[in-house]
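Quick one: structure tokens for this chain, please?
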Amino acid sequence: AMLSLRLLTWDVKDTLLRLREPVGESYAAAAGALGVRLRPEALGSAFRQAYSAQQRRFPNYGLAQGLGSRRWWLAVVEQTFRLCGVRDERVLARLAESLYRDFCSARTWEALPGAQETLSGCRQRGFRMGVVSNFDRRLEQVLSQCNLRHHFEFVVTSEDAGFAKPDRRIFEQALRLGGVRPEQAAHVGDDYVRDYAAARAAGMHSFLLAATAPPQAPAEHVLPSLGHLLALLGP
């Protein structure tokens, strides 16, 4: 079945790219630059709280509520610092702007080991490639800055698509852009529900990048590292 594959779609965060340091460290450094001293651990847990509350209230960047990713993210950053006791609105606004900017640069993101080589290898074997990611519009810039954008024919983000994984419609959009049938495509990602199971529900093949995979993932579809993909795809 694998021989009929024409298109590979890729998740990005923790599949191809990862944060260089924990969010709390980045936030603490930004605050420190403005003379505000806060503990990275406190900021990390405040961020998780602010982020999940925002996700619940305004899913997929609040597109349905007319919010959009920029305002969505600025609010998450401000709320993170509010939870840590920062009250000055001007300081909050400056922190939000500077962190929003930092998080679309190669200062913040780095390629996972094997990412460049694996993507190059897939292209050399003639696979067409695209991205399917729950991410905002900054992803194009992030991929360019990290020197990965040239591997892909298209980038579908949940903000642009209007649907977030595991919604099958984001995969259907990618299949349309790739011009292939679902059974001719495979998705590679690190999340069992949003990547592996969701792509399969859309009729695609899929591979799970996971150091430790959940028991329901068939062993032959699990990649202990990115480099394992090329061996699975055959000569």
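The mean pLDDT is 95.
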